[in-house]
Amino acid sequence: MQAFNYQTPGSVADAAKAAAGADAKLLAGGQSLLASMKLGLSSPETLIDLGQIAELKGIKVDKDKVTIGAMTTHAAVAASADVKKAIPALAALAGEIGDRQVRNRGTLGGSLANNDPAADYPAAVLGLGGTIHTNQRTIAGDTFFKGLYETALGEGEVITAVSFPIPQKAAYQKFKQPASRFALVGVFVSKGPQGVRVAVTGAGPVVFRAKPLEDKLTASWDAKACDSVKLPPNGLNSDLHGSADYRAALIPVLAGRAVAAA
Length: 262
Fold this sequence. Notes:
β6 and β7 (138-140) form a beta hairpin. Strands 4-5-10-6-7 form a five-stranded antiparallel beta sheet. A four-stranded antiparallel beta sheet has the order 11-12-13-14, sandwiched between helices. Helices cover 33% and strands 25% of the residues. It has helices spanning 12-19, 33-38, 74-79, 81-86, 88-95, 100-105, 108-114, 121-128, 141-144, 211-219, 244-261; strands spanning 5-7, 24-27, 46-49, 59-61, 65-69, 131-134, 138-140, 145-147, 150-151, 159-165, 169-176, 183-192, 195-201, 208-209. It has two domains: 5-165, Uridine Diphospho-n-acetylenolpyruvylglucosamine Reductase, domain 3 (2-Layer Sandwich); 169-261, Enolase-like, domain 1, CATH 3.30.390. By secondary structure, it is α+β, with helices and mostly antiparallel strands. The chain is globular, with a radius of gyration of 18 Å.
């Protein structure tokens, strides 16, 4: 790992200003960035640690939504009584991320900004119809995830919070890669103010909604409705852990389990 400058701004404004500089990276939990730096895959001149910014942490529950600060850890979301009551599926998802060390260091905002194709939180954002709030604007979850490790965030833009509409029903099921606990395939289903939503992570290069499953579940919210859905493997991931055909077959199976759990 090469030498780098290290900054600990005390406000979002200061962090955004520093991030707009040449070759600077924002540091949230560091679960992905620090590993890539150790491997020489990333070599920023400056790291801007967001850990001292109090306004980026915390959980707030309103009548119709849950808002979570970007620097709130996975462990805090999983343990929150308010989240468990309002959106139990979201708390359960957070509790299944990585291991204890990862959950106590990793953050919601860091996960979304990194946009790993097998991460869990993108499925929750897309599956619940969440909104990403930044220091500059609000971004609908449907337009935030652009591609492999690519998001709609611009230069100097900092995720400050994410808001999730409270659904009538929701659940998340994932088929774990046993070593990393990332999702080989993960499916988040919800039924609520935005209709029926089915979000899939791990199967493709970026999280996506499975419209054939949404259509079936809109017509009949029943686990058996997923049995007749056959998704094409075109464009899905294929690696030593599972072929594209295998992942395509897993999606409706996990969707059915999620509906049953919901």
